[in-house]
Amino acid sequence: MGKYSGIIWTMIDVEIIQKLKDGKVGVMPTDTIYGLVGLALNPKAVERIYKLRKRDLQKPMIILIGDVADLETFNIEIDNKTRAIFKKYWPGKVSIILPCEDQKFSYLHRGEKSLAFRLPGNRDLRGLIKKVGPLVAPSANIEGKKPAETIEEAKKYFSDKVDFYIDGGTIKTRPSTLIKIDNGQVRMLREGSVRI
Question: Which of 37, 53, 108, 148 lies at a CB distance of 3.0 to 4.6 Å from 153, suitable for a disulfide?
Answer without folding.
Answer: 148
